Amino acid sequence: MEIEEAEFLAEKQIIEMLPNFKAPVLNLMTVTVGPFNPGVVTKAPLWLALLLCEQNRCRILPPSWLNVESLTEIRSAERAAPIFTKLPNPCFFEISTIILQKFSIEVPNADAVKALFHDILDIRMAKLDSSISAFFGSGSAHAVVNNLTSFEIIRIRSFLSDSLSRLNTLEMSANVNPFTVASASTSTSSTN
């Protein structure tokens, strides 16, 4: 899975929006949405809210955790805990990124929210780096890491996969006895 796919899946998450039009219930393939009434909060998938917002037909209401107070608490908890804390939404990074990039005008104190969001991301990436270093240093064949999001896994997947492949190659070459290889090639050449 790539970042774009994770964002696509995140857009299926239900958020609140404030429509400025009237329409009956929509029966979509995977969800039923509506009715839509001006000024009445309606729940809809993020992708639909984004589409309607781009057409100036609604306002996106940021999730309850996308504000200075909640993000300050999340940042404090993340700093205090040696392990990854559970985030308020499995698509925390994707949803926050989409809303902050496209509709930051809808987020009160958007600059402070962006700074806190990036702080949380940096703290978790630093934890991820130290976890990877500890894993490589331990010589273990596997590790358990709880509370990672798909966004974080995607960011480290190729690096971790390549690193493990190279370590495996190094270990295999280190286990080959150069004298055995040399004597095998000598005996092969003497029989020819």
TrEMBL record:
Keywords: DNA replication, Nucleus
Location in the cell: Nucleus
Domain DNA replication complex GINS protein PSF2 N-terminal: residue ranges: 3-61
Pfam families associated with the record: PSF2_N, Sld5
GO cellular component, one term: CMG complex
Keyword hit for Nucleus: yes
Main location as per UniProt: nucleus
Biological process per Gene Ontology, one example term: double-strand break repair via break-induced replication
Ranges of residues in domain GINS subunit: 65-162
Keyword Cell inner membrane included in the entry's annotation: no
Record InterPro entries: GINS_A, GINS_bundle-like_dom_sf, GINS_Psf2, PSF2_N
Family under the similarity heading: Belongs to the GINS2/PSF2 family.
Subunit architecture: Component of the GINS complex which is a heterotetramer of gins1, gins2, gins3 and gins4.
Protein's UniProt name: Probable DNA replication complex GINS protein PSF2
Source organism of the structure: Trichinella zimbabwensis
The encoding gene: Gins2
